[in-house]
Amino acid sequence: MTIILLAGIVFTIILLTKQREFASVSFVTNISGKFQRSTLSNNYWIAGGFLFSANAALFALAFVILFFLPYGSTFGLLLCIPLSLITWLVFNEMWNGSFKDKVKMVCIGNSFFLFFIGWMTWYYLNLEPAYPGDDMFMAWIGFIFGIIFTTGAMGVSMFVILRKNR
Which residues cross the membrane (predicted)? Predict the structure, then answer.
């Protein structure tokens, strides 16, 4: 499991350092070009709502892969991380408004991660032992890992979307 986690971290770092090359890939420019002619490219409420929905859909996909497929964590790392980065690159490339409105769009879209952190905190605070003497330390470890991964995803999303295009 540690090797898979380290491989995912290295894979994410490689993708982040090569994001300018990925942004110029034809399908990213084609998708973002189609969105540039819509209200999605300059209205931060609509774009933020779509980004919120995209983050929720990507999280749901990762959840389904992780828990319902054998060897889901390996497949999830190989699929969900690049898919998330490509989605965030499309949102970066399609934006035509001001940088201030782009920050607002990212804050609205990444509020999904804040809601998820809030839900995890509520769930952890209301967690009770299943039987007397149940060790709650593993629940705490899961909570801490969830907070770390969610904060990391939110930070990477902000980093990718808020970078300068050229």
Answer: 44-69, 75-91, 103-125, 137-162
Confidence of residue 25 (pLDDT cuts 50, 70, 90): low
- Write the DSSP symbol of residue 42: T
Q: Do the Cβ atoms of 109 and 91 come closer than 8 Å?
A: yes
What is the rounded CA–CA span in Å between residue 129 and residue 131? Answer: 5
Stronger pLDDT, 165 or 164, i.e. the higher one: 164
Nearest CA-CA partner of 144 in 136, 155, 135, 132:
136
- Average pLDDT over the chain reads 81
CB atoms within 10 A of CB 116: 18
Task: Give residue 14's Cα distance to chain centre.
Answer: 16
Segments making up each domain of the chain, as ranges = 2-161
